[in-house]
């Protein structure tokens, strides 16, 4: 359904109010979808499925992005064409704005860069990244990595993107890291690539961070991770491609400075992760007939370099996905793949918690999951045409797919966290490429490396094996711990099995060098058969996959006839001479291996016995001359003559003129016939062997043409010529009149055609010229092409290249020889970008008196366009000559350019006043002057000095000098006139003082006046004196005004006042003590001093009062008494104490609950207090507890202190009880208690 269709549906529903199965909500989803498609030409959407099996029916129609088994929700991606096909299915769907709407993200060009004079940003990016890089910053940084670290770092450009081919400037860039980065070594290759889906870019900054981390840790021996990183870089090649689809990442950003509209597809709107060959579906699983340019570059790259381990980074969930995606059949290395995937996930989970306390990272769970954050690809959902399966199956590389974030393009604020959470996992994963079986396979006879297949017997399947490389013969086989038999195979070699090899997880096991024996051997059972006069069949034992050379010759001769490159073990030798002994030998070949020839086998051809033919009379006709090529034989009369000693060469497929002359002239009519035994079988009976047959005529000289068939057996054979009077002869007849002659004919093959030329190519690298183009010659590609008759021409299918061709290009060289035969070969022409060309060849000198702000110069680059120079210089304002070294970077390197900046101030300062006024100074002596001011053209500080000599004691003229610090000065004169001093000195009132007590009033101190000054007198010559202290007469507060006089040397004087406020605002501190008093049968009175315990006041205490202070028998026991403390300024405070009243005359009759005995609380829960008069202190009281019926439950004898606490009720049930208390006089108290 296209846009017109579903808008029409909406209008129909609106106009006719027709109910339909399409709801308003669904129409809204359609409208949303169209808006998103208009923006990005792609759409993310979701819909429900019945089960996981249903997904298989969709996987080739559009891209499956995610499947949530718990909700049975399928998340998909489609371009416009695919989505319109989906709409035809009528399946309800939803469109998620978060997946489709543009979202701005912080970019590297938006960061605030601190700029101070002559400072600049040393690198385009700062690590770890806190913003997404612009493409220009990315490309510059990749170039700078290589330029600044050339011993371990190399920039490899594998080609341009789809947009680049159409005139854009984006490239597919790798950083290669290794200790000897420019040479191939015997070590494994490991690889990371990120963001082949252009909107899934969490891995993009992570890869740049990782490159920077590796370089930093490797170069810094003090780095905490130096040892681990150095081991990895020294023992492997690490290849990292941060951005595999920059066209998608910077979609709709003409300047390549925004990822807001980043989309999944490439510039052709194709999902690159469904664009690879698939071992289940076939070459084009996504239904397209061609591979995208990005796919071609990566496939060519994988053809060139063999990788042991790799991963490609995605987003949209948080899980490590391992092979296979396209089948539920488990990979032979399923256990190992699970282990390394789990290791990655666990590293992330642990570090997310360690750094941020996050417990929800890398923990997605899908169908059949065994560990959070890990899934088998097909268990999740089925994918065809993915790169993971391509690398595993076709390139024998263990690759996984790493989904880094739930949000495809996470906010820049999360980038540092993602780096911290993934760093250990990223490094540990690459280190896995160093583990496993490793070794070398070589030729046992030459010790040369062999490209062999290494198979774990009974374990490997579906291309899970590995191969050795031809350069060193080295191989690397990561595998799960176990014991294995290892089979080594190579074409033309005998296989070899290394048995019982045991390996552990995280172990690198170096196996001994395997030497394979070449598989060629000398053929045996060489046997001739079907030997005839001119042919023989030779056979020998068969050797699988081998070809053979056969040679033969007549015994005793030195020259062999060679028959080469036979594909079968039998051959029919032709062109032999009858009755001749031959010897034959055979050898076997496979690739570069050739055995010795076998021993000679002897055979003898059979003799040839032709039928006889003759005539008895020649008087009516005979043969007087036979002419054929070199045969020109005149003869006389004879019934038969054997002229086989005469021979001529006749070529196959050629025609020759023949003539026969009748010796009797034209008198008699005769017929003729000529036969040639083409197959050399001893007769003239085979088809086409009667080469001339003419009826009887009186022509004296008879002519005709003889054509030698292409099938004629080469070698010597018989030609018979017959003439017959009155008829046409037959080959074996005896005639009355005529003549027969036999000749020899040597049939030869046509001249051997020259061999076709052999084209030989070499890869070359050329650099674009300043105009962005370059032309190559065919001879630049030729690498010694050969031909037996000479090559006459060389041509290329493409000789001109431009910016759009930067990277690897395939060209076809065609060579043609003198016989018009041609051969071709292909070569890679690597086009390198020329270093940037400065826009201005010689930058102008910049001059100014004060400051210069340079305009950043530019350079041109055919792929990047205009390049801004680095550093980011702001301005120069320091006098002198400065040199700026501008640098322009591209992937091919850096070009620098110098520019001179001269700051030379030649303008003197300008006084702020045109002329200085006379100064009338009221002093006898002047010790200082206030300098006038001036303004400088450069805005800097002006230093002002004078020629004055202090002190000045008489009228004088002072010359002021203004100096701008740059060697420029201006002067001004000023008259100084001394007049009598009538100006009072100055001083400030001392700061007011607040004190609490009269005794705290400070003593008179003239130094309280601290800032006395005078226009003439020095401070030391100013007199300060106390004048008076005057009180305002009040109390608390009382204000005292203290006056000081300040007098200069000329007796000019002023007064200053010092205000002192006395105000006690602090209450006394009340401290009291408990006391006990004895009434002794009467009463008692106490004072405040009796209970005072050292009360204090900041000034002094006036009174201590106890309330109450009188006690009699009614107060026996504890009484609360308040002590009130009042100071001399009327401030007061109080505190409470306990006064215990006793009467030593109290006897047993006073032991009564209502008379000084207190039992509480009642009701109670777990304890009871008994309070008795103080006279019972130290005595033993008997306490009995009885139940409601009066039965004794518990007896206690307790010494009475200040009270008795009974706690023994913990196990009593709630209810009523009695307590019986007996004193020292056996007086008894009963009381009912209630426990609740």
Overall shape: it is: elongated
Strand proportion, as a percent range, falls in: 35-45%
- Helix percentage range: 10-25%
In the sheet with the most strands, the strands line up as 4-5-7-6-8-11-9-10
Spatial separation of the terminal alpha carbons: 83 Å
- What's the CATH H-level superfamily name of the largest domain? Zn peptidases
Number of strands: 72
In CATH terms, what is the fold-level topology of the largest domain?
A: Aminopeptidase
Radius of gyration: 58 Å
Number of helices, counting only DSSP H or I runs of 4 residues or more? 16
Structural class by sheet pairing and helices: mainly beta
Q: What is the CATH C level class of the largest domain, in words?
A: Alpha Beta
User: What is the average per-residue confidence, as pLDDT, rounded to a whole number?
Assistant: 88
Q: At CATH's second level, what is the architecture of the largest domain?
A: 3-Layer(aba) Sandwich
What is the makeup of the main sheet? 8 strands, mixed
Unreliable residue stretches:
1-27, 114-121, 1146-1150
Please explain how this structure is put together.
With 1236 residues, this protein is mainly beta. It has ten domains: 29-100, Peptidase S8 propeptide/proteinase inhibitor I9 (Alpha-Beta Plaits), CATH 3.30.70; 122-434, Aminopeptidase, CATH 3.40.630; 439-518, Immunoglobulin-like (Sandwich); 527-604, Immunoglobulin-like, CATH 2.60.40; 614-748, Sandwich (Immunoglobulin-like); 764-832, Immunoglobulin-like; 837-903; 910-979, Immunoglobulins (Immunoglobulin-like), CATH 2.60.40.10; and more. The chain is 13% helix and 36% strand. The chain is built from 16 helices and 72 strands. It has an eight-stranded mixed β-sheet with strand order 4-5-7-6-8-11-9-10, sandwiched between helices. A hairpin with an 8-residue loop joins strand 36 (715-725) and strand 37. Helix 7 (203-219) packs across helix 14 (415-431). The longest helix is centred in the first third of the chain and has 23 residues, at 334-356. The chain is elongated and about 205 Å long.
